[in-house]
Design brief:
single chain; alpha/beta; TIM Barrel; 13 helices; 8 strands; about 45% helix; cytoplasm; Schiff_base-form_aldolases_AS; EC 4.3.3.7; DapA-like; amino-acid biosynthesis
Length: about 290
């Protein structure tokens, strides 16, 4: 499972001005990330605006991404939702070559109990042909996957290999790290706290800001994994302001603004998301120019 050590990127889905998928922009972004030294790419996670893509678009984006990557880095497919039966069918039928795992966010909106979350992931694990990475992001889903539930799933299902943990709750992170089975991967799901999470034993990050700054993000994570936390400090602190700006009016609108400034792809998002305000865009442009 060392395929998921280091820097993963929750890649955005570029759109043309008319809202159609921009495959030229996606190809340019993928090559930019690979050249930036990332270890793997997550295609159609929540950052990819998955909720606004139809089934045919998803298949085309997954296939195009795998074809463009061409084995140069590892690949993870984002498949989640709040209808367990539908997610199970999507996971069961996923057959696009080149992918190494599935990242599945905990159900949003329904606010299931811990038993409901457990049963949801149990059904996915039993249906999957690829390893599963859990994704806990209470700020988006409205419910938390507890440390107890995470550890129970990790112990009972060998193909549940890790968790992208974005709760920001270090008490919970500590409990998972203490109680998890050997080999189960803790992955930071929150850019600003990747350094302290790696200090506790996390194996890397699935990053949003890394879309725009893959080399800088990868450098920080690589130093942390080599236990050079002092050497990682400067880079870690340099990313604080741009990361905050990329999220201040929602993701991925912020990081798409940065990508537009870098000439990688446009900043179009699909409703109900909208582009960031002119004020925030100006601040992002000013901040991103510091890295050129």
């Amino acid at each position: 499972m060392n395929k998921f050590y280091g820097t993963g990127i929750a890649i955005v889905t570029p759109f043309q001005a008319d809202g159609q998928v921009d495959y030229d922009g996606l190809k340019k972004l993928i090559n930019y990330l690979v050249d930036g030294g990332v270890e793997y790419i997550v295609s159609l996670g929540t950052t990819g605006e998955t909720a606004t893509l139809n089934a045919d678009e998803k298949k085309k984006v997954w296939a195009f991404t795998a074809e463009t990557v061409d084995g140069r880095v590892n690949l993870v497919a984002g498949i989640g939702g709040n209808n367990t039966a539908e997610v199970v069918e999507q996971v069961k039928s996923f057959d696009i070559p080149g992918y190494d795992a599935i990242l599945s966010a905990s159900p949003n909106y329904n606010k299931p109990t811990q038993e409901g979350i457990y049963q949801h992931y149990k059904a996915i694990a039993q249906a999957a042909n690829l390893p599963i990475i859990l994704y806990n992001v209470p700020g988006r889903t409205g419910s938390n996957v507890s440390a107890y539930t995470t550890v129970k799933l990790a112990k009972e299902f060998k193909n549940i290999v890790g968790i992208k943990e974005a709760s920001g709750n270090f008490d919970q992170i500590n409990q998972i790290m203490r109680d998890k089975p050997e080999g189960f991967l803790m992955i930071s799901g929150d850019d600003p706290i990747s350094l302290p999470m790696i200090a506790l034993g996390a194996v890397g990050v699935i990053s949003v800001v890394g879309n725009a700054l893959p080399r800088q993000t990868s450098d920080v994570i690589r130093k942390c994994l080599n236990h050079d936390f002092k050497g990682a400090e400067k880079g870690h602190y340099s990313l604080i302001d741009i990361t905050r700006l990329c999220f201040v009016e929602g993701s991925p609108a912020g990081v798409k603004t940065a990508l537009k400034q870098l000439g990688i792809c446009g900043d179009t998002v699909r409703l109900p998301l909208t582009p960031v305000s002119e004020q925030t865009a100006a601040a992002i442009v000013k901040e991103i120019q510091k890295f050129s």
